[in-house]
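=== RUN LOG ===
request id: a7f3
mode: sequence -> structure
chains: 1
length: 534
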Amino acid sequence: MKSKINLLIVICCISFLASGQDWKVYPYTPAGQVAFPNDEGRHASEPIEWWYSAGHVVGQTSGKSYSFMYTFFHYPQSGFDGFRILNITDDDTGTFLQDVKPLIYTTLSTTSFDIEADVFLAATEYWKNKEDMSNVPIPFEYELFAQASSNAGLDIEFNTIKRPLILGDDGFLNQGESNYTYYFSQTMNEVTGTITFNGTTEAVIGTGWIDRQYGNFNPLTGEKYEWFSMQLSNGMDLNLWNIFTPDRLIPNNDKYKILSAYVDENTQYTTDDFEIERLAYNWMPDDMRCYSSQWRLTSTVNNIDLIITTLHDNTEVQLPFRFYEGATSITGTINGVAVTGIGFAELLHDYQDPQVTITYPNSGVYDTSLPIAWTLDNPDDGRPIFYDIEYSTDNQNSFDPIVSGLTNTSYIWSNSTLSNNDEVWFKITAYSIDGTLTNTLISTSSSTATLSNDDIFKSNIKLYPNPVKDNFTLEFNSIQNGSYEIVDISGRIIKTTTSFEGQQLNVSAKYLKSGIYFITVNTNTGKASFRFIK
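=== RESULT ===
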């Protein structure tokens, strides 16, 4: 019901935008590297190109809410010129129909929006400018026909009613490590016509979004991303990207973080000054892939605070590659004023259960003065992980909690309940914010607890300076047959030495990276650990 109300609000807003469109002529040449109608056509020098649309409509007979996505790709493979994707969803029931097929383009203009294709095992489909009585293209008005089967199809018209959003301010973006794309969006379009769903055809009205991209940024083979379109009740529209490196990181720059905003007919901008927090995740019905399903978008500079939520949990396209494409609802504030909205999410980046390795202790001796430590072996900037620690002293028959909700990968268990020489096992549970992604690991063997810090022995040792720059000093009473070990915050041994003596030990820290470390001193009279910062 909320998504239907949001759609009606957006449709009502359309009527206020139908006049004063001085840009709605051909040729239209906004500043930058985009010109209409030429750049609505095919760019023969670019290796991949696509024409994308998505929309929300209401059936005029049934009253049902539908969402759809239709895309032509030009990407020659296996004797075909590319492929097209058609998705339609009944938003009231969540029923999802999809159809992906290769095609041969019979018309593909390089100077205008005029596409016709023979779709393999389907009909002839087209998407092109409407024409007037003299067969002259009507600027920014289009007709689209697609018929996957008697079960699903579109026969609709688009009428662009907002000035095109030129991404990157000039229509050109560097995306990811080494790719580029030319890009513009037509963020608000009146949609009218008919939709066929489960064999029933009815008239629909609603709103649509059109995207145009061409370049060498390739969603089939390149870096994975999460993309969002948003049409808001205050008249703003947002085009949002997060792109992930192969190591699942999101560098904090405009190659990987892109937000383009249509504010009004006189104002639009592109920025990387925003953050996305993922609030929920969702496994697909076959449990093969997990995508994020709710996000919080914030921007301090632009005063944006929005919650984006997918409407359905099953709208995944599986060919020619797997990705999630589905409708969203939006709530939140812009400049402190409440807004709602509708949109789409296209998710190529998927998520894995966290994989954890316990680094200390995992056998041998557990020195209670040192941190319990572990590593997250598959970090992902889109999946913050929380940790709970438990312990067992009865051969893993039962576990008792130590701490929960940690975000660091180490923990010093101060004032433990262990006794000297207890056999102890540790359990680390790692999980996403909503618990959908989770994993549990128990140390492979027991560790013998040693309550090692002899307070008198430790009180006679001084470590300085702390924080450390290049070197630090330990001062003792006279020591014979001493040794020490330096470990990092994750429990990894950085350095060991087998013998020293005297009243002073000078230790080099030049080779250490900035961070927190522990040095454990062993002598014939005692053992003590000290924390220091480089």
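=== NOTES ===
The chain has a mean pLDDT of 92.
The first strand starts at residue 48 and ends at 59.
=== END ===
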